[in-house]
Design goal:
Number of helices: 26
Largest sheet: none
Number of strands: 0
Structural class: mainly alpha
Radius of gyration: 31 Å
Order of helices and strands: HHHHHHHHHHHHHHHHHHHHHHHHHH
Strand content: under 5%
CATH class of one domain: Mainly Alpha
CATH architecture of one domain: Alpha Horseshoe
CATH topology of one domain: Leucine-rich Repeat Variant
Length: about 550
């Protein structure tokens, strides 16, 4: 053939790719043809198509013994290892990753059949073990498209190859494990599992080129979060297969990152963010498997949690601060096991400029929601002594502000259109709930009364406006004020009042005057659906 006619060769390879599924495989799987395909792998204009053709060949349906013979004949593992895909040809690298994944899927299928012959099983195991370094190589690649190409292989590897029967507990010693009958393929050495965890950790981290993300709704950010979910599912599989390895490895990675930050060795927000992300997800797969209370895993978690809260007042980027607050909400029970050290520090983060008073709207609005959630999970014995101080710390965030749309109308917090949603007010309602909760947990009743009175005064002032002066901003203010009073009441109801007197007495003292004002507003603006909508949830 004339190698100066690449288009002709490309057509030839493409045709072969389409034919593979239905022609006799012996017409292709022979020395002459495969040597030609391998030769194409060395030509930039042809190699991606050649790799895709090899994937089609390896995926052709056939009996397991024949498929294993084909895999042995092709010797793709050695071929891929010899190829240099480091010349920025991302499409070719992705095609090689898909080729590795295709072979891995075929090997897992062969090895998980009901009763493979011993020699077939051993041969398949060797081929699979030889393929694992390539799996790790492509999984750890800096480009996500290449990493995700081997996800199908990794999914089958962890879900079909490694699992054992229920009679094979991880609590037994190594010698006992070897003597037990297993339904899956025998476990590979822990070095591979350790390397796999490290590769997953690397992919969970933001790239060095990534600036501090400020738009959670961007397409790139959404794709990254989607990939993170899949990576976490792999970690959870490892946690169920080998809890000790998972626990020890994540503990070492996270604590070393925190210690490096404390010592000043690193201040890269990406390192801290991924360490906090790992901490946030650490306990759940272990708790699901009943491996938590009183275990070394719980002890390791508390060490990581203590370090995270210790460094939290020094965190600069909004993502890490949000993660610390998310961790506080998820693991509020664990935080309360060390109330004298952990609770004051994390509350300092919440109420200060890192949390509900943050400059970045992304961090601030999320902190308003998480603050209310965290307070709701604290036991009264821990919250009551701090309730008055906490309530006074965010009264400056409670004034009602109405957002006007460009067309002149009020931005509706109940709108189904995200672009028309008043995100600030929607999240501000969580602060009103937090205020009500703190009132119920012992906050100075005079502060609570002053808050509700201010809301009522704002409504009363607008009730006197002449009909011709009524506009959307006025109605919006009344709507927001009624909603705010309702959420204060909701938060109050969710707490246990510690003031003297019954719940009914305290509630009457706080909310009876507000009820009268709300009824007057409803009577005055009975034709406004906007005002009626605010009253309905009460």
């Amino acid at each position: 053939m004339d190698w100066y006619l690449p288009s002709l060769h490309a057509i030839f390879v493409c045709c072969a790719n389409f034919w593979v599924a239905w022609i006799d495989i012996t017409l292709i799987a022979n020395d002459a043809y495969i040597a030609l395909i391998y030769r194409y792998l060395g030509y930039r204009g042809l190699r991606t198509t050649a790799a895709e053709t090899l994937s089609s060949i390896i995926s052709k349906k056939m009996q397991s013994p024949d498929k294993l013979s084909l895999i042995t004949f092709l010797n793709l593992t050695q071929v891929v290892n010899t190829l240099n895909a480091e010349d920025e040809d991302l499409e070719f690298s992705e095609s090689l990753a898909r080729l590795v994944s295709a072979q891995g899927l075929e090997l897992t299928r062969i090895l998980t059949e009901m009763n493979p012959a011993p020699e077939l099983r051993e041969k398949g195991l060797r081929a699979l073990r030889d393929l694992l370094p390539l799996l790790l190589r492509f999984l750890a690649d800096e480009y996500d498209e290449i990493s995700t190409a081997v996800f199908p292989f990794l999914t089958d590897l962890l879900s079909q190859v490694y699992p054992y029967s229920s009679s094979y507990p991880f609590s037994t010693n190594i010698q006992s494990r070897r003597s037990l009958k297993r339904t899956g393929i025998e476990m590979f050495d822990r070095d591979f599992m350790q390397a796999l965890l490290q590769a997953l950790f690397k992919k969970l981290r933001y790239d060095n080129e990534t600036p501090t993300p400020g738009d959670d709704d961007s397409e790139i950010e959404a794709e990254f979060h989607d990939m993170r979910k899949r990576l976490l599912s792999f970690q959870e599989s490892i946690a169920s297969l080998d809890p000790e390895l998972f626990s020890r490895s994540i503990h070492q990675i996270v604590t070393s990152t925190f210690q490096a930050y404390i010592s000043g060795e690193t201040d890269n927000w990406r390192d801290l963010e991924v360490a906090l992300f790992e901490l946030h997800a650490f306990a759940e797969p272990l708790k699901v498997n009943g491996l938590w209370e009183g275990t070394v895993h719980a002890k390791r978690f508390m060490e990581m949690l203590s370090l995270a809260i210790r460094i939290s007042p020094k965190l600069g980027d909004p993502l890490s601060r949000i993660l610390v607050m998310e961790i506080a909400v998820r693991y509020a029970v664990e935080i309360q096991s060390e109330p004298d050290t952990l609770i004051p520090t994390i509350l300092q983060v919440f109420v200060g400029h890192l949390g509900i008073h943050a400059r970045e709207s992304q961090a601030q609005l999320r902190a308003w929601y998480l603050f209310e959630r965290f307070l709701g999970k604290l036991d009264a014995v821990h919250l009551t002594p701090l309730s008055s101080q906490l309530l006074a710390s965010f009264t400056d965030l409670l004034p009602i502000r109405v957002t006007i749309k460009s067309g002149g109308g009020v931005v509706d917090s109940d709108s189904e259109s995200e672009s028309e949603t008043d995100l600030v007010f929607d999240n501000q309602l969580y602060l009103f709930q937090a205020a009500g909760l703190l009132m119920a947990r012992g906050a100075n009743l005079q502060v609570g009364e002053a808050l509700i009175q201010e809301l009522c005064n704002g409504i009363t002032e607008r009730l006197t406006v002449v009909p011709s002066a009524v506009d959307q901003e006025l109605l919006g203010y009344i709507h927001h004020s009624i909603m705010a009073i309702g959420d204060v009441a909701k938060g109050f109801e969710g707490g246990t009042p510690s003031q003297e007197g019954s719940v009914q007495q305290v509630g009457t003292q706080l909310f009876a005057p507000a009820s009268e004002v709300i009824l007057k507003a409803l009577e005055r603006f009975e034709d406004s659906s906007y005002v009626r909508d605010a009253v309905c949830p009460l």
